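Shift notes (night). Ran LuxR family transcriptional regulator while the centrifuge was going.
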Amino acid sequence: MKALLAALMTFGFASSAFAASPHVSPLVGRWAVDSSRLPMAPEARPRRVTITFGEAGPGQWTTDVAIVDAGGTEIHAAGTSTLDGTPSAVTGSPEADTAAFRRPEPNVLIMALSKGSVPASTRIYTVAADGKSMIETAVYWGNDGTPIMRTNYFTRLR
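Came back to this:
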């Protein structure tokens, strides 16, 4: 469960509502993980995981992650960053205190996370063409240094 929380909780940033403008990334909006598809026992799955992405001005990106774990504990992480790969602070995350972002396409976000100057994970978010679903590919390392990839599925809430 701790690995899942760390993976899903990476960090967060404040949000903006999704707007149907051609200049707004389809990533902008609030997303909920499909917990039924998480690779863990049903009783260990979080009760709720949401990620909200927003644009906070030219080249500024915000993210907000809210998790209620299986035991009911709430975790909230947030931050604001640029989209040029410059590291920025993350608050409230058990996995990360620093993040860097790039958005190579309007519907793709690449996020690199670290904590205490140690790599934590890399996340790639891709929004489907219809704008209603998003896939997160999370890459992290096992205790033996072996790379692990996991796919999480999200649906748009707004």
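The chain is about 5% helix and 50% strand. The longest strand covers residues 118-127.
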